[in-house]
Design brief:
By secondary structure, the protein is mostly helical. It has 15 helices and no strands. It has a domain at 87-336 and 344-351: ABC transporter involved in vitamin B12 uptake, BtuC (Orthogonal Bundle). The protein is globular and about 65 Å long. It is a multi-pass membrane protein.
């Protein structure tokens, strides 16, 4: 039933359950697109400028302060006044900032897709068990003593990628069998509980040093991605974002509910597979390279809807991607504690930075959805 494509003819359009959602959908998309061309493009331009400024600031700030003009000189291919500055920018801060932008965009878009699919404001990348699958893969390497040296770090990334891929495969397999998105959501949660339980058992039987290594991985970090690994991460994220951009129209249809979306010609099975594949690819790749980064996938979509004041995903997808990159850069800069050698846990900074914003949005909108 979910795979059947319905066409709107003269007989169907007289039915109130079909004509009404069609009217609403036109308001959500075609009519609104005419009025958002200037205001929303201006907002996206401002977000892009803000992202560029924060990106340059992230290269200048840190345990060693570097003048902004020296940062620009290095980025434009010149030589910094001090060789150490050039080394810090090119080998440490630049790959870390690029990783933060890619990870922030990926997790934010993943959360946006899952919230639209499950019509659940608390849905995020961890809701399908993808993060838990990646964590289990990493735990199998770290807690068995296989994460020593450069090859050990690469094996952790590989194992986390395999764990995320297996979880994604199971979810896609169930998406073909389960017609209800709510049932699929419950399956994802149960899968997450199972993998978390397995990780807990591994932690119980592991040594203290191995446990500490794994806990440090769970804190999340953008600093572990090297120049050799960065092209792989960027390629996967760009591919996932391209799929997300192509699913904007189905996401808009899902705003009406599954039954109404089906009546307008949407194949729910196909849409679920596309959305789950894209969201899993984005969240799984980031978790594999950076650890389980929390909060971004849940909070940023709400922030994007509030700032853009629209439900149209043709606007929300680029806006949320920019906001995710921006917030990830800010959190990473704060975690580095400028002027100090201390590095704070990224997930702690992310929650302290994002939770007050989300609470403020809820208070501002009262009973309305954020």
């Amino acid at each position: 039933m979910a795979n059947k494509i319905y066409t709107l003819n003269s007989t169907h359009t007289k039915h109130p359950t079909i004509s009404q959602p069609k009217k609403i959908f036109n308001k959500l998309t075609n009519h609104r697109l005419k009025s958002l061309s200037i205001s929303h493009l201006g907002g996206l331009t401002l977000l892009t400028l803000a992202l560029i400024i924060i990106f340059l600031a992230s290269l200048a700030l840190g345990s060693v302060a570097i003048p902004p003009n020296e940062v620009l000189t290095v980025l434009l291919g010149g030589t910094a006044a001090k060789p150490a500055w050039q080394e810090i920018i090119l080998n440490f801060r630049l790959p870390r900032s690029l990783t933060a932008m890619a990870a922030g965009s990926a997790l934010a878009i993943s959360g946006l897709q899952l919230q639209a699919l499950f019509r659940n404001p608390l849905a995020g990348p961890s809701v399908l068990g993808i993060n838990a699958g990646a964590s289990l893969g990493a735990a199998l390497i770290v807690l068995t003593g296989g994460s020593i040296g450069w090859w050990g770090q690469l094996s952790v990334v590989g194992a986390a990628s395999v764990g995320a891929a297996i979880a994604m495969f199971l979810i896609l397999l169930m998406a073909h069998q389960i017609r209800s998105s709510l049932a699929l959501l419950v399956f994802g949660l149960m899968l997450g509980y199972i993998t978390t339980a397995l990780v807990t058992i591994l932690l119980h039987f592991s040594h203290l040093e191995q446990t500490l290594t794994y806990l440090n991985w769970t804190f999340g970090s953008f600093s572990g991605v090297t120049w050799q690994q960065l092209p792989i991460l960027l390629s996967v994220v760009i591919f996932g974002l391209a799929i997300a951009q192509l699913t904007c129209k189905p996401l808009n249809l899902l705003l009406l509910g599954e039954e109404q979306a089906i009546s307008l010609g949407l194949s729910m099975t196909m849409v679920r597979c596309y959305l789950i594949f894209s969201a899993s690819l984005l969240a799984g790749s980031v978790t594999a390279f950076c650890g389980p980064i929390a909060f971004l996938g849940v909070a940023v979509p709400h922030l994007g809807r509030s700032l853009c004041r629209t439900q149209d995903h043709r606007v929300l997808v680029p806006a949320v991607a920019l906001l995710g990159a921006l917030l990830a850069l800010v959190a990473n800069s704060i975690a580095q504690v400028p002027g100090n050698q201390t590095v704070l846990p990224l997930n702690a900074v992310m929650a302290l930075l994002g939770a007050p914003v989300l609470i403020w949005l809820m208070l501002k909108h009262g009973k309305h959805q954020v």
